[in-house]
Amino acid sequence: MTENIDEAGIRLLTEEELISAVVEKHRRFLEENKKEFVELDSRLNQVEENIKNAKNFRTRMEERKEVLKEKRQQFYHQTEAILEKEIFPKLDPTTASKLREELKKLKGQIEPEEEQKLKDLFMQNLRETTLAARLGETVLLQANARMEEARKSNIDLKEIRNSEKQFVEDDSSKSEEISKSKSQHKWLSTRIKNHEEALSYWEKLKV
């Protein structure tokens, strides 16, 4: 058998050479796994940090939404107060009631675009009624200014809601990424431990 191997030009490795080859193999795998582990660990930490920051941002946005909702209602309340004091008592009950109903619709939870249409219609009716009753335009300007501020608050609210939809999509993507990364993270950790144990075992034999 040995003669056949010699004739074929194949050299058998000594035990020491075999052990050295095994040690080198485990060392190489260990380095590769550790490098991948460090990169994955860094990426995983960054994703988790991003999720934490996003959660904090959403909390602030929730608080901001409440402020904007209250601000919007406050501007409409101020508008009502002005009109109830300066305009409505001087109009006939039917006309005043109609304007109150229009204002009530404006205060509801509607899209900014719809709010703009209703506001324009309300201001047109209010202006015609006010001018017909010769009540002047000062109150009109005040009411319009406050309703415009209310509408701006509604625009800000819509922008936040749109951002929240994007956050939900991003969260779903990040959660999936974390799930996969943690699985890979655990697998690499086990591989590293196995190679370290194997390396330790074979290095002892090498000595």
TrEMBL record:
It comes from Methanosarcina barkeri 3. Residues 165-185 are annotated as: Disordered. The keyword Coiled coil applies. Residues 165-180 have a biased composition (Basic and acidic residues). Keywords: Coiled coil. Residues 30-116 form a coiled coil. This is Phosphoserine phosphatase.
